[in-house]
């Protein structure tokens, strides 16, 4: 009788285990299907991880160093920096450093992006010129803060990629032009603010001319193998130009060409 009892218990145990396994398989398949419908398990997990990294970036790299403008901090937390970086370098998106984006160019360190943006003191009705679109990240940050962004990129393939990326992400208040940023974009001047994301040997006079009275320009100035100065250029109501060195920086050089196209 004890043997029959043991056999019955064993059968019940095995049956319960099989039922549990079947239930787990069903739940796993259901959850997998749900996640795939949302874009895939890895995608859902990655976006959540990137969001946490972005929040930590703002708190530990940017606000901690003294950037106080609430709208700039919010833009830095909202814009998905990793989507502006090639997939092979994406794991470095929220590191405290520049990251290569191809074509010999880099996306600037997060703190520098935020710091330069704060220096501009832009408002929601402002029109801004950016020289050096790169992957489009700085333009995306500005697009959340101002009425219109005009951004220029000298490298055609990089500029085309930035244009397509920004449009796909819904940044409809950004226009991209392939051309020599040294000359600016006079068709849309004057600008409330101008930001240059590559180092010029000297401050381009055309950019000063295209800055509105009361406007501000932020630009790194210096040679490739020198410590460069991040300069703040202001133009008062009488069009008097004031130049001020802010901090030492290191940027890729501002290159020149005669070719130009806008999208």
Description:
This protein folds into two domains: 1-37; 95-262, Rossmann fold (3-Layer(aba) Sandwich), CATH 3.40.50. The relative contact order is 0.10. Helix 2 (41-62) packs antiparallel against helix 3 and helix 2 (41-62) crosses helix 4 (110-120). It is built from seven helices and ten strands. It has 263 residues and is α/β, with parallel strands linked by helices. The strands form two sheets. It has an eight-stranded mixed sheet. A two-stranded antiparallel ribbon has the order 1-2. It is 39% helix and 22% strand. It has helices at 2-37, 41-62, 70-78, 110-120, 137-143, 156-168, 205-209; strands spanning 99-102, 105-107, 127-131, 148-153, 174-178, 191-196, 211-221, 228-235, 241-249, 261-262.
In short:
With 263 residues, this protein is an alpha/beta fold.
Beta-strand level of the residues, as a percent range? 15-25%
Our count of helices gives: 7
Give the CATH H-level superfamily of the largest domain.
Answer: Vaccinia Virus protein VP39
Mean pLDDT: 87
CATH C-level of the largest domain: Alpha Beta
Q: What is the distance, rounded to the nearest whole angstrom, between the alpha carbons of the first and last residues?
A: 87 Å
Fold blueprint:
Layout: H1 2-37, H2 41-62, H3 70-78, E1 99-102, E2 105-107, H4 110-120, E3 127-131, H5 137-143, E4 148-153, H6 156-168, E5 174-178, E6 191-196, H7 205-209, E7 211-221, E8 228-235, E9 241-249, E10 261-262
Parallel strand pairs: 3-4, 3-6, 4-5, 6-7
Antiparallel strand pairs: 1-2, 5-10, 7-8, 8-9
């Amino acid at each position: 009788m004890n043997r029959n009892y043991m056999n019955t218990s064993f059968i019940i145990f095995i049956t319960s285990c099989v039922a549990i396994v079947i239930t787990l398989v069903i739940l796993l398949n259901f959850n997998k299907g749900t996640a795939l419908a949302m874009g895939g398990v890895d995608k859902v997990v990655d976006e959540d991880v990137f969001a946490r990294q972005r929040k930590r970036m703002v708190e530990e790299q940017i606000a901690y160093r003294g950037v106080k403008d609430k709208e700039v901090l919010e833009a830095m937390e909202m814009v998905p920096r990793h989507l502006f970086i090639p997939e092979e370098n994406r794991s470095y998106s929220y590191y405290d450093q520049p990251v290569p984006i191809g074509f010999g160019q880099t996306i600037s360190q997060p703190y520098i992006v935020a710091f330069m943006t704060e220096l501009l003191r832009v408002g929601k009705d402002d029109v801004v010129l950016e020289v050096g679109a790169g992957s489009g990240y700085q333009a995306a940050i500005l697009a959340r803060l101002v009425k219109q962004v005009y951004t220029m990129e000298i490298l055609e393939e990089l500029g085309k990629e930035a244009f397509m990326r920004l449009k796909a992400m819904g940044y409809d208040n950004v226009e991209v032009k392939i051309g020599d940023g040294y000359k600016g974009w006079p068709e849309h001047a004057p600008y409330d603010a101008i930001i240059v994301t590559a180092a010029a040997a000297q401050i381009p006079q055309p950019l000063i001319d295209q800055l509105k009275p009361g406007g501000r320009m932020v630009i790194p100035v210096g040679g490739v193998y020198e410590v460069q100065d991040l300069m703040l250029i202001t133009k008062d109501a009488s069009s008097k130009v004031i130049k001020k060195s802010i901090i030492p920086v290191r940027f890729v050089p501002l290159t020149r060409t005669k070719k130009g196209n806008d999208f």
